[in-house]
Amino acid sequence: MKKTVIIGATTNPARYAFTAAGMLSEYGHEIVPVGIKSGSVYGKEILQINKRPVITDVDTVTLYIGPQHQPQHYDYILSLKPKRVIFNPGTENAEFEKLVTDSGAEALEACTLVLLRSNQY
Fold first, then answer.
1. Does residue 41 contact residue 21 with C-beta atoms inside 8 Å?
2. 64, 7, 74: which is closest to 35 by C-alpha?
């Protein structure tokens, strides 16, 4: 299955990033939660984004941080060498999408939850 890095991971069950972690796990995808807060989600420790954790063999990065918080993480996210970056609703960012496509990855404005439910993930 597809190793997916969740940028903006959270322990808050009211957030879509939390729901995505659960659905990705349920659908058999390996998740790597990355965020600013400590804790664990669906049995995986949230890695601290500011420490720029090394993650290998990344298929997908799914974004749950707004465009105003993305620029400081552009280089880090691109260093993961994902095959695609999903810009979930509210995270759309033309500047970063261009950087993603220029790096050779796919930039996809979509909802991870919908992609999973419709077997398009």
1. yes
2. 7
User: Mind listing the pLDDT tens digit for each residue in 16-71?
Assistant: 999 999 999 999 999 999 999 899 999 999 999 999 999 999 999 999 999 999 99
Tokens read off for 36: 């600013």
pLDDT in tens, 67-110: 999 999 999 999 999 999 999 999 999 999 999 999 999 999 99
Distance CA 79, CA 56 (A): 10
* pTM of the full structure: 0.97
Question: Side chain identity at 108, as an amino acid letter?
Answer: L
Residue by residue, what is the 3-state secondary structure of the chain?
CCCEEEECCCCCCCCHHHHHHHHHHHCCCCEEEEECCCCEECCEECEEHHHCCCCCCCCEEEECCCHHHCHHHHHHHHHCCCCEEEECCCCCCHHHHHHHHHCCCEEEECCHHHHHHCCCC
The token duo for 112 is 């991870």
Q: Phi/psi at 107 (nearest 5 deg)?
A: -105, 120
Joined together, the tokens standing for residue 100 give 């993603």
